[in-house]
Amino acid sequence: MNNIKESRKIGKIISKIEKGEYKDNYRRDYSSHVIGITGPLGVGKSTIVYQLGKLYAEKGKKTGIILNDPASESGGSFLGDRIRMQKLSGYKNVFIRSLSSKDAGGISGITRDAVNLLEKSSFEKIIVESVGAGQSEIEIASLVDTCIVVLMPGMGDEIQMLKSGINEIADIFVVNKSDKKQAQRTLREVEMLVNMKKGDWKIPVVLTSAIKNKGISELMEKIKEHHRYFKDNFKKIRKLKLEKELRILIKNEINKKLNCFFKKNLKNYVDEILTNKKDTSTVAKEVVNDCFTKE
Fold first, then answer.
1. CA geometry: angle 29, 108, 87, nearest 5 deg
2. 286 is a domain residue
3. Looking at the predicted structure, is the pLDDT value of residue 54 above 80?
């Protein structure tokens, strides 16, 4: 592909999407394989994205990378990751774009549009990196075909978090920074959780040291295996993803309506509570009833 021309064209369209000046009704045909990388801050997601992107590029795959950045991020490790990522720009078959995830949880509100645009432009592999794992970031699972959750050794709280629902989004687990002392223990803990989960797909747990490029080839093989499973069970998986997507979109629309309602009425409700005219429970019920009453 003509890297400079096509990259500039795609970049300009994404900028228009961000400004609300462009809308494409393209719907995915799943000709691309969309891979999601999520996990808490500091686990090495960007390094894994870089290593995967490099391997795909060297195999001749037309690769798109969408990086979702925290709106107010700063610091050396973050900057280092992004400088490393820019090395991929030297490959003619790679497109990279950062999006701000401000007010949108783990991924930007236009990430889905960007993915659709890249698939429409015949990218074979599309890698989406979210800001971090958490209840607000589960939406990445409905967007991608293969969702990878990255952890690192010594993350006791995050392992507990897996038990409370984050494990539901993972198709593959990665325990990165395998040179740390607690790597094998973390690996075993995650494997125990995975073995408790029922389903046709047995979730693999891959040990990596992304900074040293260790375990990345194995991870790529597991991604390939999951993509085969995804294609073989497309209708069933697509239905589940659509259910998740609808829940997310409906929730977003409800939040918009609530935010609009709060701007107009919140001060009055607070005044009524402060003057003992109403209590907080009554106000909460009134807000919900007012928001969901059909006009």
1. 85
2. yes
3. yes
Q: How many domains does the chain have?
A: 2
The answer to which of 183-192, 194-203, 271-280 has the lowest mean pLDDT is: 194-203
Q: Are residues 14 and 156 in the same domain?
A: yes
Q: What are the φ/ψ torsions at residue 152 (nearest 5 degrees)? A: -140, 165
Q: Do 164 and 270 fall within a single domain?
A: no
From residue 245, alpha-carbon distances to 32, 66, 135 in Å are 19, 19, 14
Q: What is the pTM of this model?
A: 0.81
In a domain, 242, yes or no: no
Residues 87 and 187 in one domain: yes
Q: Does 253 reside within a domain? A: yes
Which residue range is the domain that position 178 belongs to? 3-232
Q: What is the pLDDT of residue 257?
A: 78
d(Cα 274, Cα 57) in Å, to the nearest integer?
A: 61
98 within a domain of the structure (yes/no): yes
**CA–CA dist 6, 90 (Å, integer):** 14
Please determine, for residue 150, whether its predicted confidence score (pLDDT) is greater than 70: yes
Do the bridges between strand 146-151 and strand 172-175 make them parallel or antiparallel, or are there none, so unpaired? parallel
Model confidence band, residue 157 (pLDDT cutoffs 50, 70, 90) = low
The CATH number covering residue 190 comes to 3.40.50.300
**Residue 98, CB half-sphere, CA atoms under 13 Å: how many?**
16
Which of residues 253 and 70 earns the better pLDDT score?
Answer: 253
